[in-house]
Amino acid sequence: MPMHDWTRVKAGTYHNFHVLWMSSITNRLNAGLLPAGFFAMAEQIVGRPETDVVTLQTGARPKPSVASNGGVAIAPVRPKTRFVLPIPPEKERYARKANRIAIHHELGEVVAVIEIVSPGNKDRKRSLQTFADKAVDLLQQQVNLLIIDPFPPGPHDPNGIHGAIWGELTDQPFELPKDKPLTLAAYQVEPIKTAYVETIAVGDRLPDMPLFLYDEYGIDVPLEETYETTWNVLPVEIRQLLETANQS
After folding, report:
1. What is the pLDDT of residues 107-142, one digit of tens each?
2. What is the dihedral of CA 233, 239, 240, 244, to 10 degrees?
3. Distance CA 37, CA 65 (A)
4. In the beta sheet, which residues pair with residue 219?
5. DSSP character for 44?
6. If we measure between CA atoms, which residue out of 163, 44, 61 comes closest to residue 115?
């Protein structure tokens, strides 16, 4: 299923899809995709900002093991993204952030966060800065991060949402490909802070993206599967509107 052009509908229409997609991802994570000892919850407050989906860990970290069906219960993630960008430690700007608050939850430690970008996250310079600061704060607090941005860059993020975050992490440049203006970015915090960035365009299928849980271990989040699941429960009128927009 192709990625749709969400700039062609009103914010309220996209918000409805955003909420449903967030729920679909959360449900898929909790329906056996996450290993034992981990679970996902939606719309929890982590640090000072709100997030979409958080992954929590209870108890000790599980060791890599083989499931009863012969599959690997938890294994190293092997990202296949277009960009693999190590964050140079000597150029990290975490020292500028004074509020180093450890992230915890009454049901367990938060180890990863998934964010689905909304237009309001980057329609103003202040909104974009708040979003970028939130991402940096999470990485600073050793929380892995996956960001999904179905919107093209605007005047405040000319190199996309990752470009805005990258500028807070390092002085190295990042240029978003003009033919693939939508951004998917996974951030790994251990053992080496690294950004794995994939770029797509309207009409492309969504790739699976890594979600790190600890060190190099994690899962691949089935974005295409959950996107299609969400699409299939949308009202016919909304689907027709977006399908017409994709064809124009």
Report:
1. 678 888 999 999 999 989 999 999 999 999 899 888
2. -160
3. 13
4. 211
5. -
6. 44
